[in-house]
């Protein structure tokens, strides 16, 4: 596969854009692979890429029921950050952010990663104290984080409601290296890079059954025929419990909930940061896309479903948050809204682990936060599958943590998916 470069853009510009190759192949499924990853979202594609790139493995397929990136990977609000505190999560998300910083070069594909800062608004001295602890921990463990005074915040982001907000703003916690990326480009970049290493990406290929032989999985049944595999990894986000029950494995500590996102008509440059507002039941985050649309989201829809569409009460809720924190948005027209199916784990932290079946591996439980995690998730999941043991960074991201009472409770909110993001 030829590399993208300024020269190739220039040359194709002069020759009618006729010289571009397909970004990835559209192969027929083989009857057998060494490794099959189910789900061509960001996590599945990144896993396949790192399996081939980092571990030199060949004969890999990624199996996708729809089109690649058509799930949560292409539906999120694209926020990338690593402001985590708990051991395990901290190292994991910081590694992810470090991978993001080089991802466009790594994949030879512009993922439009924009380190525009992630600004969490603070509304009480207690919140400021708790956040100072988190951000100091981040700094002590090699990440970046700052506390902004109200004055600095006003100077930097003047359009917020500083005058008559129900919850007055007193400052902000900021991660300057955080930001946004273009989610489709990440999916396409990983797909193209994985394909260039020989990975077969099989779209329109739904897994409908999992064949077990004793303590092993021997094959998957798909809408394009039976595919045998020596190792299988599930990376199907909100559909994890469906695949889990196909493998006859009982219940998972995961619930599938819907989360909506919204984009407005394009505006002139208004907001140069990611702003997060969360207090007193409100939950709202907003940034401006490169095309000018205000991209924002809020809370879950609060009922379980596998449908990729949301409901109106949350539209009202998010609109209330938007206008209360940025009143200047009051007359902005909404262009589109949509939803994805979130794999909410009970402690808000993910699973990258082995399963009760020897050659079946699980990647799930990403809650609201799997976009930023995708590079590290693929990195560590590939390592787990290749070496059959977890790296120390992910050693607590397993299913038994609930039985063993060692949950990774990042928000200190307890075992309830409604309280985690
Ligand atoms: C509205 C919204 C906003 C979000 N905002 C953010 C954010 O700002 N920052 C952040 O970090 N995270 C965010 N997230 C979360 C993030 O998008 C997800 O955690 C992450 O994308 C999940 O991983 P994935 O990309 O691999 O999932 P997906 O893209 O959902 O991939 C799973 C794939 O598995 C496929 N699949 C399912 N069942 C089968 C089957 N039987 N056979 C074959 N294939 C199957 C699906 O079609 C899908 O393509 C948001 C999510 C949503 C919905």
Give structural notes.
The chain is α/β, with parallel strands linked by helices. 29% of the residues lie in helices and 26% in strands. The protein contains ten helices and 18 strands. It has helices at residues 6-14, 42-55, 89-107, 125-140, 150-156, 183-196, 240-246, 312-325, 370-387, 401-404; strands spanning 32-38, 60-63, 79-80, 118-122, 146-149, 171-175, 179-180, 200-202, 207-213, 216-222, 225-234, 254-266, 274-277, 284-288, 293-304, 334-345, 351-354, 360-364. The strands form three sheets. Strands 1, 2, 8, 9, 10, 11, 17 and 18 form an eight-stranded mixed β-sheet that branches. Strands 5-6-4-13-14-15-12-16 form an eight-stranded mixed β-sheet, with helices on both faces. A hairpin with a 2-residue loop joins strand 9 (207-213) and strand 10. The two termini are 39 Å apart. The structure holds flavin-adenine dinucleotide. Residues 38-44, 63-66, 70-73, 75-79, 206-207, 235-237, 239, 243, 259-261, 297, 340, 342, 366, 368-372 line the site of flavin-adenine dinucleotide.
SS content category: alpha/beta
Mean pLDDT: 95
Task: List unreliable stretches of 5+ residues.
Answer: none
| Rg, alpha carbons | 21 Å
The general outline is globular
Q: Given the structure, what is the number of helices?
A: 10
- Please estimate the helix content: 25-40%
Helix-strand string: HEHEEHEHEHEEHEEEEHEEEEHEEEHH
Heteromolecules bound:
flavin-adenine dinucleotide
Tell me about the largest β-sheet: 8 strands, mixed
The end-to-end distance, rounded to whole angstroms, is 39 Å
Strand content: 25-35%
DSSP summary, beta strand count: 18
